[in-house]
# Entry
Amino acid sequence: MYRETSVGIVMPAYNEEGFVGDVIREMPAYVDRMYVIDDRSTDGTWDEILEAARADRAKRANRSVDGAREPPGSDHLRADGGAGALTERATVHEPIGRVVPIQHRENMGAGGAIKTGYLAALEDGVTATVTVDADGQMDLSQMQRLLDPIVEGTADYTKGNRLLNREYRSAMPRFRFVGNAMLTFLTKVASGYWKTMDPQNGYTAISHDALEAIDLENLYEYYGYCNDLLVKLNASDMRVADVSMPAVYGDEESSIEYSTYIPKVSLMLLGNFLWRLKTKHLGTDFHPLALFYLFGAGTAAVGALGIGWALFDTILQSGSILLTGTVSFLIFGLGVTLLLFAMVFDMAESEHLESQYQ
# Structure
């Protein structure tokens, strides 16, 4: 336990042979459970998970024999995480020490593996659940900084942020930085968390209450799961904290295909944005920002079409751009103004739900 709080780790693993074992063996002693999900790997990932779990169990047993002070173990948690929805998507094996090995029945991607681990942690009643990649990119010594806001009751969800600190920013490869910046802006609009940055950071911690509040069954099962989760958290008025921390870029290879990843996640965020407006600002409650967004987008679109037509008429048909172009530009400007008002209202609405830790 960490500060009287039970801690679980969700670790998705797909073809992480040579990495996942080290991450398991190096896990801090205060962690109570590790839900390690093999997402139908085609290499030796599963065998490495089992071997590392046995080594971790033996190491902890030796510490107890030697009289070293061990934090409370995981015996206070239930070992029946395979109940319910879990059995439909995965085989949950008997715990090996504090490691719960889980095998997917079919490949479900990063989001699917995270969902499986969250379901297991929710079933076990873990108080705080941390997501850790199996590739060794994440500095495990930083985990306490993610847990502290949850333990202290100041946040329901915390996430690493590699963009708050200039030094950490400069260490990020250029192509990742550009893609991250694009998705950061889109996620701000979709989620309503306007201070939140680096939404693709997979180093996160979430409280049991937040897991219960969101629609976990419908969590997006692709790399955009972290963006989808932020939208769901905002709709439930959950507090989110950004924690500045570095990332380690080693020998691992990313399986993300950015040519399909960014368009796919962008479309998902558009749908999530409309869902959030309907659910939070038009359904359970009413806030004019929803109307400002909708009318602003519609007006700007009409104005843009008008400007396009005026240019077409002038270039190809030798028409006059003055009247049509001026009216269209004014309509477009009105639409942009309405959108800016909507964003200002949106920022104010969620400001109390956001915090940052350097």
